[in-house]
Design goal:
3 strands, alpha/beta, single chain
């Protein structure tokens, strides 16, 4: 991969579909390979379920952990998982 994009999310159930579709559409048009990593920061809504559906349909990684630890922690976890 040339680039890794880390996207921290927390309770984004209502915005995720539109945003994710725009992200996948944009990066599909790029000439360089891109690794997309969503990090669920302990969401309590349906965000994780939606992310898992996207992972089945698109080339992206999903990282999740049980409790909310903040955006900095989520970004760090995504960066550590990046290839």
């Amino acid at each position: 991969m040339n680039f890794s994009v880390v996207i921290p999310v927390f309770n984004e159930e209502h915005r995720l579909q539109k945003t994710a579709n725009e992200i996948f559409t944009f990066f599909a048009k790029q000439s360089s390979p891109v690794e997309i990593i969503f990090v669920d920061d302990g969401s309590t809504d349906n965000t994780l379920s939606l992310l898992r559906q996207y992972a089945n349909q698109h080339a992206c990684k999903v990282i999740s952990y049980g409790e909310n630890r903040g955006k900095g922690y989520a970004v760090r976890q995504g960066a550590l998982a990046a290839t």
